[in-house]
Amino acid sequence: MRVRAALAIAGLAAFLVPAAALGADGAEQQLAEKYAPVLGLKQHEPCAETGEPYRPVPVETVLGQADVVLLGPDGKVVKQAPTAADLFGKDEEYWLDFPGDPLDAGCSYEQWFNRIAAGKATTAYAHIVEEEGKLALQYWFYYPFNDWNNKHESDWEMIQLVFDAPTAKEALSQTPELVGYSQHEGAESATWDDEKLEKRGEHAVVYPGAGSHANQFVQSLYLGHGAQTGFGCDDTRGPTRYEQTQVVVAPAEATGPDDPFAWLGYLGHWGQEVSGPNSGPTGPTFKGQWAKPITWVDEEWRPDSVEVPASSTVAPTATGFFCTAVEKGSEIYIRFLRNPFFVLGILVAIALFAICSRAGRTGRPLCRRRSGRPATSGRSTAQGSACIAVGSHSSLGLD
Questions:
Q1: What is the pLDDT of residues 223-234, one digit of tens each?
Q2: Where are the domains of the chain?
Q3: pTM of the entire predicted model
Q4: What does the DSSP assignment read for 240-287?
């Protein structure tokens, strides 16, 4: 009788566990899985110049790798093959360094990613936080490399769903009132029933721009912009491969180095230090929307993105020229951020070369004496040398 009673109690407990699990943690897990996004990544051929070779993976994909090092404030190696525990408590003066050079990436990062990411799930880190009586459900995506105008190791992107409810348990009985997709700076918003928001059941479909990972609602060509990255084209057009993300619910903060989410306590950079905007970014907890998601909605969300007319109104060659011109302009801008004096010197040299060339075509020498005032031979020689130098690439140190 005692054995039967014990079995009955155990069976009743097992029956009640799902209901009890709908407390804070259980409801958050259920909510996060219910809306786990689908990613529509631009199809990619191995080592091709177009498409998206990367997908979001767990951070453990890069941690513990023998060819990854953690660098300290003095640039010296603090730890080889660092783990999440090694990252905990480190500030923004620390840098993870992957094998390769982001400014000369070639195919090395893609090949490295294919090796270390084999068998790893396409992952979305869910973060749930209440602010001002509303609940924000965020999905954070970790890409090991960003291959856009600003090439850099690691990239963190995210989308956010907003519920008019203070808890996950209450949000389960509702639909989201707003959805926001991060795009370089800020985010583009939509209502849950907006026709531009594609869904598979309850799962929003997200189209990341090839290389930049700026998240879009619709497959098209967009003009992206960031204060540190300049302008560029975000391409989400097909062919496309679709990835259903697997959710990992992350806490608001790590409790210590032994916490499985100890990497949340890392305020340093997830990539190599490079001058200008090519340095590795900081992680999610460093971003303002991690703790203030509704404030972020009010201050930085906008209703649309700038779309580049790429089909009927502009010929493909014109579109390609436009995107190439924008990309080259951004390269100059990024070079300016990294080395302003070098870029200014080049621009001045180009201007002088154009002036000298124009003077030569019109038959009016740029370097000539003023009428009625004889010049010294030294001054004339110096001026002539300057014109010759402007016309010489080697004297400018151009690549």
A1: 887 666 667 889
A2: 24-330, 339-396
A3: 0.78
A4: EEEEEPEEEEPPSS--STTSTTGGGG--SBSS---SGGGSPPB-GGGS
